[in-house]
Specification:
The chain has 14 helices and no strands. The chain is an all-alpha fold and 314 residues long. The protein is 71% helix and 0% strand.
Length: 314
């Protein structure tokens, strides 16, 4: 692991010193790979393109993010911005690397959420796109069958519509399972807050360390999203648009409206108390699927129906 981190420091130095003009590009790529963007953009975009793909993205996002949280507790991965100081390898020749707000996270660095969570959640999107390309590029019936078979095999099987209790129990299982693992490790003498103290010790600016980078922030997000998905699928608004076939213009309007609502909701201030923040984060991500699946499509569908000109019989 130390050799891997050392190689990463060398690459970071080369990129920052020799390709400084690409700094904004890499920051933008990091932003697009952030697991939180799955909820903010990829999930609604995928859902309005295909309901099945969108729900698959949400399920995979919350399950893999929960697994990522648990794996971090067992792997104890360092982050480069504190490892360069704690390892002692750079005491004689300090590493010439810069910190950024996105790099000063408080959770362990391994496994990488950008790779594990985002990569897994984008799988159904890439599968759907490749299936569409294969279908349009077919040249004979054999290739048609082979595109169809591969698409069926690679499409993730996720719950689409279950009883509301299923989603409530899923959210409860995520919270109780995490609490059980946390207190078991704590009882065994493992300090699971070690990464938080190192982050506060070595981050250049205290304001870069946000509450939403704490490990339990992802738990509140995932459990809230699971419950919100169930509430959305059983809401009266969703029942009215469930069978509706929205046109391309309506889908684009849904995405624009959802972005307009989700953006400000994501940027709301965080309560200073940790417990209040977790409650606020849970409620915010419970509302998230309700907006995307039910309220926004219902509003667009009703507005479009009212704006449509009446058809007069001749």
């Amino acid at each position: 692991m130390e050799s891997t981190l050392g190689a990463g420091i060398v690459i970071a130095e080369a990129l920052q010193n020799q390709l400084a003009w690409l700094e904004n590009v890499w920051l933008w790529i990091t932003f697009l790979g952030d697991p939180k963007i799955l909820f903010l953009f990829y999930f609604p975009a995928a859902y309005y393109a295909s309901r099945r793909v969108g729900i698959a993205v949400l399920w995979i996002s919350l399950i893999t993010e929960w697994l990522n949280l648990i794996f971090k507790w067992f792997l104890f991965g360092d982050r480069p911005f504190w490892w360069v100081h704690e390892s002692g390898y750079y005491s004689q020749a300090p590493a010439q690397v810069h910190q950024f707000p996105s790099s000063c996270e408080t959770g362990p660095g391994s496994p990488s959420g950008h790779c594990m969570i985002t990569g897994a959640a984008l799988w159904p999107i890439m599968t759907a796109l490749s299936s569409q390309v294969a279908t349009r590029a077919r040249s004979c019936c054999h290739s048609t069958l082979l595109g169809a078979v591969l698409g069926w095999l690679m499409t993730p099987r996720v719950p689409m519509e279950r009883e509301l209790s299923f989603y409530g129990l899923t959210a409860l299982a995520l919270m109780l399972g995490t609490s059980l693992i946390y207190w078991t490790l704590f009882t065994l003498g493992l300090d699971l807050s070690w990464s938080i103290s190192l982050a506060f010790k070595w981050c250049e600016r205290p304001e870069w360390i946000h509450v939403d980078s704490r490990p339990f922030a992802s738990l509140s997000r995932d459990s809230g999203a699971a419950l919100g998905l169930g509430i959305a699928l059983h809401s009266p608004c969703y029942a009215q648009v469930r069978r509706a076939q929205l046109g391309n213009g309506q889908k684009i309007a849904c995405l624009v409206l959802a972005m307009g609502l989700l953006g400000p909701l994501d940027w709301l201030g965080h309560p200073p108390q940790i417990s209040l923040f977790y409650i606020f984060n849970f409620l915010k991500y419970t509302l998230w699927p309700c907006l995307v699946l039910a309220l926004v499509p219902w509003a667009v569908h009703m507005f479009s129906a009212q704006e449509a000109p009446p058809i007069h019989s001749s």
